[in-house]
Structure formats: structure tokens, C-alpha cells
Amino acid sequence: MKTAGSSSAENTFLGHLLELRRRLTWAVLALLAGFAVAYPFSREIYAFLAAPLVAVLPPDSHLIFTSLPEVFLTYVKLSFLAGFFFALPVVLYQFWAFVAPGLYQHERKLLFPTLFASVALFVAGAAFAYYLVFPAAFHFFVSFSGEEITALPAVREYLSLAITFLLAFGAAFQIPVVTVVLARLGVVKVDTLKRSRRYVLLGCFIVAAVVTPPDVLSQFMLAVPMYLLFELGLLFAGSVKAAPAEAESESLDTAAEASDGEGAVDPDRELDEAERQIAGLDAESRSSPDKSEK
Fold it and tell me: Where in the sequence does UniProt note compositional bias of the Basic and acidic residues kind (predicted)?
């Protein structure tokens, strides 16, 4: 037999699932709409993405494809990526609308600017990779071609390399946001992060070595900005105070009292009842000697 509490919890869980399905549906529809808008311009999108490589290729070199569906699949992938970029405001809004009701007030105030800063920094990281890293890295790679070796990069391989660069630099530019959020939530202290600078620097070079191609130039162009962004995050985190634990505990107490409902126990009422019982016992104890004397 189900109790009222288990039935309420089940209804709440089903309600969250239905809400999640509705939010995901809107996000997927926005992504499909973005894909439909981007696909007619897929050739122009690829030409824009390949421009840094084409600019450094020798005059007799050009991009090639080695399988028949390669170019078509490349255009489809690019259209999905561009469609996701177009649909990003709708996707972020659906995410915000789903998680916001379950957050405390100070968490809501932190989440919205964090999302905005995260998107802005990701775009800045991708732009840094496209306008600064791409020309230098591709010029370094193409410089090994000569009379005996001709550079004929494949379309699919170039797309994979370019997307890897863009995602790696976009993710690396999230370091200030992560640092500030961890300091704001009290997960990590700023003094602890400052004492860990040498380990962070080592970690930046390890991540750069894993993500980028095996050349020193690409690794330095990713590792150095990562560490500088870590220092920038420390600068902002130093001016941010951790969230007060009292506000969170107060919110938890309020929620617990509201969830108890009619079954909640009133401490003042219990204290008054105990005082009345003690007063009754004292009256009985005083009257019992008088009865015995009579």
C-alpha cells in the first residue's frame, strides 16, 4: 500500500520527467530549425572555416576528398554545428527554465551571469583559435611540403582538426568561469588555488599536449593562454565571497517546515503542555498531605 508521501514523491518525479521531456523537445526543435537554416549555406560555412588553410597552401595545392560521400557528410556536420550555434539561445533558455525552480536565490543569481560569461568566453576562445592559432599552426604544417612532398589535405581530416582546435580553445577559455564558480560556492579556496600555480601550469601543458597535434607551437599557443586565463580567474575569484551557509540552511529549514505540513510539531505548544502537566503534579502533591492529616 502506497503512503501519501511516496505518492507525492512519485508525482513530483513524473512531473520533473515530463518537464524535462518538454524542454528537450523545444531544444531539439530549435536545433533542427537551425540546421535547416544553415544547410543551404554549408558550402560558404566550409569555405570560411577552410580559409586559414587555403591561404597558406602552395599555389598548386588544394583540398581533396577520397570517398564519394565525404563532402556531403562534411556539409551535414557543419550544418549541425552551425545550427547548434544558431539555436544556442533557445537551448540555454530551456536549460535555465528547467533548473532555475530548484535553485536557491543566490544560486540563481550566480547561474545566469555564468551562462552568459561561458558563452562569451567560448566564442572568444574559438575566435582566438581561428584568427591567431590557425594561420600559425597551418603555416608550420604546410612548411614541410616541397618538390618531393605536395600538401593535399583531405576535407574530412581538416574538418576534424579544425573542430578539435575550436572546441579545445573554447573549452580552455572556460577556466576563469570555473575558477570563479568554485570560489563562489566555497568548493575551493582562492589561497589554495594560488598555492597550486605550479601544478596548474604543468596540467596546462599536459592538456595541451593531449588535445593539440604533436607540435610545440600548437601546444604553447594553447597552454600559455590557459595559464593566463587561470590567473585571470584568480583575479576575479579574489573579489568574490563564498556563498553564506546561513542563507542556504535557512532555506532548507523553510522548505522542511513547508513539506511537513500538518504533521509539523510546534515546540511552543509542547512547552506549554509540559508546564501545565508540571503545575498539575505540584497541585496534587500539595493536596495529598492535607488529606492524610484529616
Answer: 283-294
Q: Which amino acid is at 82?
A: A
pLDDT digits (tens, 9 = 90+) for 172-185: 899 988 888 888 87
C-alpha cell at 184: 563562489
Among the listed residues 198, 158, 164, 189, the one whose alpha carbon sits nearest the alpha carbon of residue 53:
158
CA–CA distances in Å: residue 138 to residues 55, 76, 144, 218, 219? 9, 24, 11, 10, 13
Provide the grid cell at 206.
599536459
Q: What does DSSP assign to residue 242?
A: P
135 versus 270: the higher-pLDDT residue is 135
Q: How many CA atoms lie within 13 A of 117 on its CB side?
A: 16
The answer to whether residues 89 and 179 touch, using CB atoms and an 8 Å cutoff, is no
Cα 285 to Cα 254, 277, 280, distances in angstroms? 43, 12, 9
SS (H, E, C) 175-220: HHHHHHHHHHHCCCCHHHHHHCHHHHHHHHHHHHHHHCCCCHHHHH
Q: What angle do CA 175, 232, 188 make, to 5 degrees?
A: 60
pTM of the complete model: 0.70
Alpha helices in the chain (DSSP H): 4-38, 42-56, 70-99, 105-128, 134-142, 155-172, 175-185, 190-195, 197-211, 216-237, 245-260, 267-293
Cα angle vertex 271, ends 266, 277, to 5°?
130
